[in-house]
Amino acid sequence: MSHPHTHLRPGTPPPPAGAADWRAWSQAWTQHVPLLTGRTDLTVLVAPGAAGDAPECFYPDLNRIEVDATYIADSPDVTDPAKARHKRLVPTGYGLLVHGAAHAAHSRWTTPHGTPPILATVADLLEESRAEGRQRARRRGDRRWLRHVVTTLLRPDDAAIDDAWHAGQLAALLLARVDARIVTSKDVRPIRAAVTGVLGRKRLRQLRDIWREAHTCDDTDADTMICLARRWCQVLGIDPDQQYDTPVPDAGLFPGRLAAALVDYLAVAAGVTPAEYATALLAHRHSPPTEWDRTDPTEQEHRAARDLANRLRQARTRHPEPGLRPSPIPPGRLRTRHAITADAQTAAGQMPTAAPWQQRAQLPPEKPRLHLAVLVDLSGSMARYTQAMSSAAWIFANAARRADATTTTIGFGDRTTVLVPPRTYPRQVLHMRTELATATFPEAVKVADQLLDLRHGRALRMLAVVSDGYLDDIPAGQQLVTTLHRAGCAVLWLHPADPPTDGEPADPDQIWGHTFTHTTTLTVTDPTEAIAAIADAAVTALTQA
What is the C-alpha separation between 268 and 285, in angstroms, rounded? Predict the structure, then answer.
């Protein structure tokens, strides 16, 4: 699969559906693109889903720029593309056209045959700011439109973990655009601080020398671009002759400062707070499928929520009765007999030993707020538990509202689904459905950490996993669980006692019925026992806090 930032691709893409509805846009932009590029042999295709997995792409073999219409508007009648003023109404879509025009006009080199994929990827990253810088130098007014699409061309996964590769990738995509005079140094201040924290000042200066040299390369100089890509890898400590493929993020590591800085940048560009941006991104990626059923909660579920809320409240407020202690000075309650004795001792010229005041002992510190994340395995082998855990998600959320706690329930299977986000109190019970695999367990743990800050803070943190342990990526999951354990987050694993179904195919890459270390593992025989075990663990943790 092509790298998401590769906007220059060989070959012939399949025709996208819906192109006929956007034919007027394709024709208007085809007539307009010679003004942007100085070329008369180009065509533009606008359609939903065009450009493959990127918002925009240039295909040199077809002399065609493709723009995904979903970045323009929901329907083609938003404006008339044949009129010049239309660009102000669809700045992001028009910016994608300008970005494609920059590649069509200035990305005239092709990767030499046999180049390691990692070098090709780095060269493509350097080409992004080089092509845009050349376009801005030739048409200064295009900078306005290119600035609109910088955030569109970025993905939150560009800073998946804090390592040298991803820090370098973020530097090439944003810091290099400062020297290309597309964005300003003020725009990327948090990004620069985060990248410097990972790479150090010396390595960042070396990378800057490389992208500045790339900005001076000729439009057809492929050899120099590949040589610069090799130098880039050497600065990051990567040998492209040994590590042939592009590095992938370690699934067992949590996002760090790079991810936080990128979210801050994207939020500022979108005009929202980082928390609002993260919430919107989470809803876009992990909302429940529309086909999942919803039902009104039963009286039994209402009663269970009230009972759990009462137990949690009692656990939070149950303190030892404060004792009483004598004191020679106020505040407190004056004890007359002891006051007279103290006065008599003073009048006799003695050191007073009587303590006329009675004080209450200091109250115990307030108990921390409970942060509870429940992860539910949605693989086919857990079908018996999905109904009960769907009910549990509603019970936990509504009990937390009354007990000063924060909970979330997340399902993991073929995808990660946030069933109940924190600080939301659903009116209905959302019923989960089983899926085919459990490939997203590491992602589900990271989402839980993002929602409840399980690795930090003064809250009482607990992660409960309801799974038979038939997971795809055991090492990454174990690494994440160990990180939470060492950070002070308790991990409760509820393992059903049911054996695998007869005839179920065995995958040699999976460890069936695996038991994780650094967890408190309980074997449960039925779904209601799992719910009770989570509730009991939460109450016990609060009582002992």
Answer: 20
Q: What is the pLDDT of residues 98-117, one digit of tens each?
A: 999 999 999 999 999 989 99
pTM of structure: 0.82
Measured from the Cβ of residue 229, the count of other Cβ atoms closer than 10 Å reads 26
3-state secondary structure of 101: helix
- Using CA atoms, how far apart are residues 446 and 452, in angstroms rounded to an integer? 10
Structure-block tokens of residue 262: 């990128």
Provide the 3-class DSSP secondary structure of residue 419. strand
Nearest CA among 149, 66, 146 for reference residue 102: 146
* Nearest C-alpha neighbor of 409 from the set 425, 399, 420: 420
Beta bridge partners of 374: 409, 464
Q: Classify residue 180 as exposed, middle or buried by CB count within 10 Å of its CB (0-12, 13-18, 19+).
A: buried
- How far apart are the C-alpha atoms of 102 and 38, rounded to whole Å? 10
pLDDT digits (tens, 9 = 90+) for 187-215: 999 999 999 999 999 999 999 999 999 99
The amino acid occupying position 349 is G
The contacts of residue 541 (CB under 8 Å, 6+ apart) are: 370, 460, 462, 490
